[in-house]
């Protein structure tokens, strides 16, 4: 089983390496992780960012302040409890996240056009199943 897991990780990194968008911004891995957290989960505040990154509240707060200054994030008060600040991505933040975590659609299309319909269907179903199971791990 361990060999299969290593192979799957190798395939994943090969795919990303060859098909990712060129990086335009100088952006740290932690900034990408924060953008992903806020995109994938709702009602995220600084405390959840700190917990997710395993850093102090003050450190997370500094990251968030810099990301707000760069216009990647915005904050608003929670409707149920106005003491809580909720973070969300701006349009720019969504674009930066997409460019730093997604596959280049033109490159991906080029690769997929080289496959037959059965291969495309197998890949789509496999990735869909893996995605669904991954979401259950949280």
TrEMBL record:
Residues 1-132 form the HTH marR-type domain. GO terms for molecular function: DNA binding; DNA-binding transcription factor activity. Transmembrane segments: none annotated. It holds the Pfam family Staph_reg_Sar_Rot. Residues 98-125 form a coiled coil. InterPro entries: ArsR-like_HTH (IPR011991), HTH_MarR-typ (IPR000835), MarR/SlyA-like (IPR039422), Transc_reg_Sar_Rot_HTH (IPR055166), WH-like_DNA-bd_sf (IPR036388), WH_DNA-bd_sf (IPR036390). Keywords: Coiled coil, DNA-binding, Transcription, Transcription regulation. SUPFAM superfamilies: Winged helix' DNA-binding domain. GO terms for biological process: response to stress. It comes from the Bacteria. This is MarR family transcriptional regulator. It comes from Gracilibacillus thailandensis.
């Amino acid at each position: 089983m361990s060999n299969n897991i290593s192979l799957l990780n190798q395939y994943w990194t090969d795919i990303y390496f060859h098909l990712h968008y060129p990086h335009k911004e100088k952006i740290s891995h932690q900034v990408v992780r924060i953008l992903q957290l806020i995109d994938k989960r709702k009602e995220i505040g600084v405390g959840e960012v700190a917990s997710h990154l395993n850093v102090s509240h003050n450190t997370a707060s500094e990251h968030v302040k810099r990301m707000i200054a760069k216009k990647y994030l915005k904050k608003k008060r929670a409707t149920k409890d106005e003491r809580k600040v909720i973070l969300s991505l701006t349009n720019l933040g969504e674009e930066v996240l997409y460019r730093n975590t997604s596959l280049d659609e033109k490159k991906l299309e080029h690769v997929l056009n080289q496959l037959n319909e059965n291969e495309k269907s197998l890949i789509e179903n496999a990735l869909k199943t893996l995605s669904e199971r991954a979401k259950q791990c949280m």
